[in-house]
Every structure is written in structure tokens, then in C-alpha cells.
Amino acid sequence: MKEKDGMKISRRDFLAGVALAGAAGTSAGCDKKPQPESRPEERAGPQSNKIDSNVRSRVVLVRDKRVLDEAGNINPQVLVRMLDDGVQALFGDPQPEIAWARMIRPTDTVGIKSNVWRFIPSPPELEEAIRQRVIKAGVDAQRIAIDDRGVLKNPGFTKATALINVRTLRTHHWSGIGSCIKNYIMFHPQPDVWHTDSCANLAGLWDMPIVKGKTRLNIQVALTPLFHGKGPHHYQASYTWPYKGLLLGEDPVAVDATAVRLLEAKRLEFFGKEQPFSVEPKHVRIAEEKFGLGVADRARIDLHKIGFEDGSLI
Q: What is the pTM of this model?
């Protein structure tokens, strides 16, 4: 669990009722550090891992003007509907419940991998909505965990059979963008060893047994993305905007490639010219080219958009 667990639980208890109501109404350190198993460059997959050039990936963008009020507060009911609509569209099912049942089995132990960066953390409203959907799919609440930095000590993740990957969209000092791919860095005992070469080999994280083959859904939260930054922990509200969206996909690479595209478009709009990232987010491209984790080629990503188009940028 995250810090201030007691407060978090009470908030989630409150949000649980809201999330369910919304769905019903809308229904659509130590001196000696542990040694890593291997360094990222040693885990780099061979070129034979390339995926077929004919493979395509589907990403869903859901936006709703009402998900944020004028003060930037989240409307939980609207967010729940966005989640359901996105999952339903991603899998092409007539009802969101069918889509969730497709992803999650009642026998699963489910870890919801969040991100706790203090300026733009994963919204607890969304975490709770996901938890409720997993419960509705038949998983006992005791076998569902939500965590970020404590995943290696959390049985809900060390014993997980299914993972749902959630993080907020932002630029990043080491990797160019804070990606769904990078969100699994806390599953390694020495996360900093993955920062070399602009985090080029981050996709190697996804070969670790603790996560390999377990991810059912990736979500880039683009409610108020951060599109520009100046340092490792930089945040400036003027470099965010109320995009009011969620990007969802089974393929983390395709979701991240679409997120890069969105940030590029916003940077062009804001600065009036193409504005390269301070660090190139090349790990997204390398995730396909070297590791075969998913599709980074934008020409092979099918983007399905739901909701209002004004200012969508992509």
C-alpha cells in the first residue's frame, strides 16, 4: 500500500461507493545494496525479438469535458464511465463487464501498478474504479493490491497473476517521457541501473519473471499531462493543460508511442515550432526494435477516439 495507508483506505472506501454508483448510472538504504540479476545492457534482447512488421496495435483515447471541474477536481462518476467506455472499445465488447471478464479471471491475484510522483500521481479515483471492476470480475478484494514503490515487498505483486499498469502522462528527465514501459522500474531491486543511455533498455524490465506476460491493461492518464520539464523533479503548472483524457491499450509500447505523439503535438502548439524533448524518449522505439515488446511504429497503431474532438491534437 502507499504512504498514509489509513487515509488512503478511508478515501478509497468513500470512492468505492461513488465508483459503483457511477457505473450503474452510466454503464457504458542499507550499506550493501542488493545485486541485480543482470544489468539492463546484459538483458537486451537480440534482434530476432523483432515483431512482424504486419502486426498492428489498437489504442483507445477517451476524453470527456466533464471529468474535471474548473478547479481541476475529478468527477469520479465521469472517470468511471471513461474507463468503462475505453475498455469496452479496446476489446470490442458490447458491455464493459464482458471486457473486464476477458482480462481478469476470478482466480487471479491482481496488482494495480500505480505511480506516486507527488505532483501528478495516479488518481486514486481511477485506482478505486479499477479495483471495483476487478472485484466485479469475480476477484476477492483480498487478492487485489495497489502499489508503486513497495511492489517488491507486496505479496499482491510478488504473487500476482495479472497486472494493470497505470501512470500519469508527463515528460521525464531520464527517459524523455514517463511511460507505461518505465512504470515497471520499481519491480527491479536497483531501479537506477536502468537510467543509463536515456533509459534505452527499459523494455528489458518486462522480461523479468515478476511481470513477464502478466499485464492485462495499460493506461496513460492524460487528464492534466505535463508536456515540458527542466530537470529530474521539475513540475510547473503552466506546462500542464486540461486534456481530460485516458489512453488505453493492451500494448504498452503502442500506448506510449501515442503518448509521445500527443506531447509532441502539444509542444509544437505551445512553443510555435517543433520542440525536441530534453531527452529523446528512444526507449519506446527500442522497445519494439530490440525487444519486440509491442508496436512503436505510428503507422501500425490504430487509434480509436471516443468523446469530444476539440483540442485532441492527435
A: 0.85
Measured CA to CA, the distance from residue 251 to residue 204 in angstroms comes to: 15
How far is 285 from 237, CA to CA, in rounded Å?
29
Grid cell, residue 293, equals 515488446
d(CA 216, CA 75): 25
Percentage, residues of the chain above pLDDT 90: 80
Q: For cell 493492451, what's the residue? A: 250
Separation of alpha carbons 84 and 233, rounded Å = 32
CA dihedral 194, 197, 201, 202 (to 10 degrees): 50
What is the predicted pLDDT for the residue at 314? Answer: 97
Question: Which residues sit opposite 68 in a β-bridge?
Answer: 74
Over residues 249-270, the mean pLDDT reads: 98
Are residues 1 and 54 in contact, defined by beta-carbon separation less than 8 angstroms?
no
10 domain residue, yes or no: no
3-state helix, strand, coil in the chain (%, to 5): 45, 20, 40
Is there a domain that residue 136 lies in? yes
3-state secondary structure of 152: helix
User: What is the spatial distance between Cα 112 and Cα 110, in angstroms, rounded to a whole number?
Assistant: 7
Domain count, the chain: 1
123 burial type by CB count under 10 A (0-12 exposed, 13-18 middle, 19+ buried): buried
Query: What residue numbers bound the domain in which 255 lies?
Result: 55-307
Residue 23 lies in a domain: no
Report d(CA 258, CA 149) in Å as an integer.
26
46 occurs within a structural domain: no
